[in-house]
From TrEMBL:
<feature type="binding site">
    <location>
        <position position="128"/>
    </location>
    <ligand>
        <name>heme</name>
    </ligand>
</feature>
<feature type="region of interest" description="Disordered">
    <location>
        <begin position="1"/>
        <end position="26"/>
    </location>
</feature>
<feature type="active site">
    <location>
        <position position="164"/>
    </location>
</feature>
<dbReference type="GO" id="GO:0020037">
    <property type="term" value="F:heme binding"/>
</dbReference>
<dbReference type="GO" id="GO:0004096">
    <property type="term" value="F:catalase activity"/>
</dbReference>
<dbReference type="InterPro" id="IPR020835">
    <property type="entry name" value="Catalase_sf"/>
</dbReference>
<dbReference type="InterPro" id="IPR029062">
    <property type="entry name" value="Class_I_gatase-like"/>
</dbReference>
<keyword id="KW-0349">Heme</keyword>
<dbReference type="Pfam" id="PF18011">
    <property type="entry name" value="Catalase_C"/>
</dbReference>
<dbReference type="GO" id="GO:0005829">
    <property type="term" value="C:cytosol"/>
</dbReference>
<dbReference type="GO" id="GO:0046872">
    <property type="term" value="F:metal ion binding"/>
</dbReference>
<dbReference type="GO" id="GO:0006979">
    <property type="term" value="P:response to oxidative stress"/>
</dbReference>
<feature type="domain" description="Catalase core">
    <location>
        <begin position="44"/>
        <end position="432"/>
    </location>
</feature>
<dbReference type="InterPro" id="IPR043156">
    <property type="entry name" value="Catalase_clade2_helical"/>
</dbReference>
<protein>
    <recommendedName>
        <fullName>Catalase</fullName>
        <ecNumber>1.11.1.6</ecNumber>
    </recommendedName>
</protein>
<keyword id="KW-0575">Peroxidase</keyword>
<keyword id="KW-0376">Hydrogen peroxide</keyword>
Length: 711
């Protein structure tokens, strides 16, 4: 921990909620110098001069020309003119949160990294989730990969785990990244589409580059439309190395498993949300943290001993491959809890700078050629995005560990380095700062001594040659519903492709090699002939399916934090409504009372019941389930088109639709077919059935019946 004299940094852990955190907070807050609070302060210029009039510029007379000497207005407008910085070239749309990581135990046999040794140690983290394609102001619920980047502020320096919510990537070699990104980004002539991949250049590229097949099927699956940032898995994607104190290395793949379950939107919901609440994911995360429903993930690793490197039917260095969890299970290492929202979006979420090259002793890279390129790219991009090489001094990026070295000057230098020798070795400043030799603990960073004996060549390893078997494994591991969603996603996206030869190439040369039935179904929806055979021999895997890949097997531990709409209208039975709210709150469900308008409604016994919003203001797509409150209010709701639409839409989106006894007749009149998620009753049993249905996330058995309901 740096002393007060050393470069100060802001606290990563304000707010307290656990005893451990309280301790850490006290320590960290003593270093706080940059978080600014204007409460009780005078309005001043950047030079500290108090401002008397912030309404009028300095003019020659009340109707006269403005005067150049108005330094107050000039300073204000000049600063404003330069408020924007370039957005990230990819992952521009994002949202961040603070939290902490805590190891489950001592993982000394695996790594010497200090933050993975002590269950008592709290390591502050900052996480940024993002979409990839869209610009900073684009919608949250588009079909896209999500970034899942975690900065661990460890005592030994910052470790950035810059991952995604999918475990593989589109390309195998970093040299293809600009091509891939240019293809997926909006097309250059008209900058369309924003935030999506349903356009010619994307499908042109991926249909010509079969190594993308595995990642593309993930992107066409429900994983690309997560319900919430809280309900996403995270993956480090590349194989990394962990190194213990004896210098023994293991290959690892990093996984983040959400306690909230791995849940997705339906495509119709995702599209509607993109319009009704562009900030849907951002808001959901913010509100969950504000209401104390702190999202939690378990960090785990799949471990492969160095000796087993070549035991698989794929190459561990190939980032288009997973290690199926059935072959190598995930070993849990610790947990991450997100419990504090940023104070300032720009200062924290926008300025945070991740880099896969930020690692600490005990962690190292592999020769994955995609990872190797990333090690260069991230720092490079920060230099133009954040305006120079001193971006590590921006408060959100400052390590908790001290960072003395001879690097100096450059744009925006903040630290005032004392001493005269900005070089090493020196005999002027007592030789400081000095190197630390590597050691079992607390030593200097030492790269893993991998022996390399090779020719310098531009060549793809033959072991990277199979592009389809794992895409097939993925498809065959899906439930029938998930498979249908994949068929629909390919059909939707390819349906937006104008050039028929691109559609046909994707169907015949990619999908047919993954699964002929998949290809035939997509072909039928595009009006193309069904391919009779694939174009390559796809190796047969011993594993026919990997249940770990299906979201149906990850529904979450509880319904904590799920969202329920309670529909009310004048005449509602207040006591029943109250009982329901209490029962759901006991399960930490977020419940919103919705009325025909935002005005309070009158209860049957003449009281008023406050509502959180109108049904139009918070539509059914924003909820996991709906309950219609009993009493005479149901009659009023029946005649309200918005309420009818609310119920039908929730039903169509396979959500539990329930209500007190009076609601049953309404549901019947709407022709809603009985199923395990359509419930009515006033007793505790009905509420229990409702919470159980929420726990299953969707009423999948309803999928066929729901098709008949208008969207
Ligand atoms: Fe990135 N990526 N990437 N990427 N990436 C960036 O860095 C890049 C890749 C990922 O919330 C950029 O600071 C290259 C894989 C996330 O700030 C840039 C290659 C994975 C984020 C960049 C990849 C990722 C980025 C843009 C192929 C999953 C957002 C702004 C060699 C494991 C981090 C920035 C945040 C951001 C380059 C491939 C994840 C341009 C060259 C694979 C989560 O440097």
């Amino acid at each position: 921990m740096p002393s007060k004299k050393e470069a100060p940094r802001e606290s990563q852990l304000a707010g307290t909620d656990t005893p451990d955190r309280a301790n850490t907070n006290a320590k960290l807050q003593s270093l706080e110098t940059v978080r600014s609070d204007a409460t009780g302060q005078a309005l001043r210029t950047n030079q500290g001069v108090k401002i008397a009039d912030n309404q009028n510029s300095l003019k020659a007379g009340p109707r006269g020309p403005s005067l150049l000497e108005d330094f107050i207005m000039r300073e204000k407008i000049t600063h404003f003119d330069h408020e924007r910085i370039p957005e990230r070239i990819v992952h521009a749309r994002g949202t961040g949160a603070h939290g902490y990581f805590q190891s489950y135990g001592k993982h000394a046999e695996l790594t010497k990294a200090g933050f993975l040794q002590d269950p008592e140690k709290i390591t502050p983290v900052f996480v940024r989730f993002s979409t990839v394609q869209g610009p900073r102001g684009s919608g949250d619920t588009v079909r896209d990969v999500r970034g899942f980047a975690v900065k661990f502020f460890t005592d030994e320096g910052n470790f950035d785990l810059v991952g995604n919510n999918m475990p593989v990537f589109f390309i195998q070699d970093a040299i293809k990244f600009p091509d891939f990104v240019h293809a997926v980004k909006p097309e250059p002539h008209n900058e369309i589409p924003t935030g999506g991949s349903a356009h010619d250049t994307f499908w042109d590229f991926v249909s010509l580059v079969p190594e993308s097949a595995h990642m593309v099927i993930w992107a066409m699956s429900d994983r690309a439309i997560p319900k919430s940032l809280r309900t996403m898995e995270g993956f480090g994607v590349h194989t990394f190395r962990l190194i213990n104190a004896e210098g023994v290395a293991s290959f690892v793949k990093f996984h983040w498993k959400p306690k909230q379950g791995v849940l997705s939107l339906l495509w119709d919901e995702a599209q509607k949300l993109a319009g009704k609440d562009t900030d849907y994911h951002r808001r959901d995360l913010w509100e969950a943290i504000e209401t104390g429903n702190y999202p939690e993930w378990e960090l785990g690793v799949q471990i492969v001993p160095e000796a087993d490197e070549h035991k698989f039917d794929f190459d561990l260095l190939d980032p288009t491959k997973i290690i199926p969890e059935e072959l190598v299970p995930v070993t849990p290492l610790g947990k991450m809890v997100l419990n504090r929202n940023p104070d300032n979006f720009f200062a924290e979420t926008e300025q945070v700078a991740f880099c896969p090259g930020h690692i600490v002793p005990g962690i190292d890279f592999t020769n994955d050629p995609l990872l190797q390129g990333r090690l260069f790219s991230y720092t490079d991009t920060q230099i133009s995005r954040l305006g120079g090489p001193n971006f590590h001094e921006i408060p959100i990026n400052r390590p908790l560990a001290p960072n003395h070295n001879g690097q100096r000057d450059a744009m925006h230098r903040v630290t005032i380095d004392k001493g005269r020798a900005a070089y090493e070795p020196n005999s002027i400043d007592g030789g400081w700062p000095k190197e630390t030799p590597p050691a079992a603990q607390d030593g200097g960073f030492e790269s893993y001594q991998e022996r390399i004996d090779a020719h310098k060549i531009r060549q793809r390893s033959e072991s990277f040659g199979d592009h389809f078997s794992q895409a097939r494994l993925f498809f065959h591991s899906m439930s029938p519903s998930e498979q249908e969603h994949i068929v629909n996603a390919y059909s939707f996206e390819l349906g937006k492709v104008e050039r028929e030869h691109i559609r046909a190439r994707q169907v015949n040369e990619i999908l047919a090699n993954i699964d002929l039935e998949l290809a035939a179904k997509v072909a039928a929806k595009l009006g193309l002939p069904a391919p009779k055979a694939g174009t390559v021999d796809v190796p047969k895997l011993s594993l026919k399916a990997s249940p770990a890949l299906s979201q149906m097997n990850h529904l979450g531990e509880s319904i904590k934090g799920r969202k329920v709409a309670l529909l009310v209208a004048d005449g509602v039975d207040g006591a029943l409504a109250d009982k329901l709210v209490k029962a759901l709150e006991a399960e930490s469900v977020q419940i919103k009372v919705l009325g025909p308008t935002s005005a309070p409604v009158k209860t049957a016994d003449g009281k008023t019941l406050a509502v959180d919003a109108s049904m139009e203001g918070l539509p059914s797509v924003a909820f996991d389930a709906v309950w219609v409150a009993g009493g005479k209010g149901v009659e009023a709701l029946k005649g309200d088109g918005v309420a009818v639409h609310f119920i039908l839409e929730a039903y169509k989106h396979l959500k539990p639709v329930a209500g007190h006894a009076e609601a049953k007749a309404w549901f019947d009149s709407l022709n809603l077919k009985a199923d395990s998620g359509l419930l009515a009753g006033n007793d505790a049993k009905a509420i229990k059935a409702f919470t159980q249905a929420i726990g299953k996330h969707r009423v999948w058995e309803r999928e066929a019946a729901a098709k008949a309901v208008p969207a």
